[in-house]
Amino acid sequence: MGALIGKKLGMTQMYDEKEDLIPVTVVAAGPCPVVAIRTEEDNGYAALQLAFDEIPERKLSKPERGHLAKAEVAPHRILREFRGEEGEFAVGQVLDVGQFEIGNSVKVTGKSKGKGFAGVIKRHHFHGKNTTHGTPDTVRHGGSIGQGTTPGKVWKNKKMPGQMGNKRITAKGLTVARIDAERNLLFLKGAVPGGNNGYILIQTA
């Protein structure tokens, strides 16, 4: 299995092997040193902890510096664990885009764009009400949110206005369309969560 931390650079388009023009997302993926290896015997679960985005040591706290120094890894901004990773890994080993091949199916996890407080029409795609017959001020309202006496409450998960976006999203079934090993770039067919320069986790599906 392959796993990397990356940064979304933006979207573009390219021709595939069938000469079809496809949309792709360009991701700066790795290199990611292995900081720790979690095992069932010692930790109760199997996982691989990777680091990404090297930064000056002064920007980290003392515990973070000590944790990375124990693994003999330079200071990095991001630390993430990938559960269920299997294979022969060693602490200090550097992983890069060489783990992937063109045509691999991957899943990408990131934080979606935050869009602030939104009403039900924008957030949940409600139809809205008629603009005639005495409804001048309730065109974009959500309507009734429950009964008056029984059950006398608003049920949990009722679709209502609120915070839109800014959530952890996983996009599955994306395909590796191209690999640029010299510049540590992955070209993924389709769109991935989040805005440009956002950090994402890439894992083979």
Keywords:
205 residues; mainly beta; Double Stranded RNA Binding Domain; 2 domains; six-stranded antiparallel β-barrel; four-stranded antiparallel sheet; 3 helices; 12 strands
Task: Provide structural commentary.
- This protein is mostly beta strands and 205 residues long.
- It folds into two domains: 3-116 and 169-204, Double Stranded RNA Binding Domain, CATH 3.30.160.810; 117-164, no CATH class.
- The protein has three helices and twelve strands; from the N terminus they run βββαβαββββαββββ.
- The protein has helices at residues 40-43, 62-70, 120-124; strands at residues 3-15, 21-29, 32-38, 47-54, 76-83, 94-95, 105-111, 117-118, 162-163, 168-180, 185-189, 199-204.
- The strands form three sheets. A six-stranded antiparallel β-barrel has the order 1-2-11-10-7-12. A four-stranded antiparallel β-sheet has the order 5-4-3-6. A two-stranded antiparallel sheet has the order 8-9.
- It starts with a strand and ends with a strand.
